[in-house]
Specification:
The chain is mostly helical. The protein has one domain. The protein is built from three helices and no strands. The protein is elongated, with a radius of gyration of 22 Å. The chain starts with a helix and ends with a helix.
Length: 71
C-alpha cells in the first residue's frame, strides 16, 4: 500500500469516527510526530554547526567556560 493510499484510508476512517477520545488520541500522535521531526532537524543543525566550529578552532578552553558559566 502506498503512502497516498494509507492517507486516503486514514481520512475516511477519521471522517467516520465519532468518538472524541479516539480523535483526540490521533491528533496527539500526529502533533507529537511533527514536533519530533522539528526537534530532530534543529538538533542536527546545531550538531553540524558545532562540528564546523570545532574544525575552525572556534572553541573555548576550560578556564573560559568556567568564567562564562560562573557569573
Amino acid at each position: 500500500m502506498s503512502a497516498g493510499e494509507i492517507k486516503t484510508e486514514l481520512r475516511q476512517m477519521i471522517d467516520r469516527e465519532t468518538d472524541m477520545s479516539i480523535l483526540e488520541a490521533i491528533r496527539t500522535i500526529l502533533l507529537k510526530t511533527g514536533l519530533n521531526a522539528v526537534l530532530k532537524e534543529k538538533l542536527t543543525m546545531r550538531a553540524l554547526k558545532s562540528e564546523e566550529d570545532i574544525k575552525a578552532g572556534r572553541v573555548l578552553g576550560k578556564e573560559e567556560v568556567i568564567r562564562k558559566t560562573s557569573r
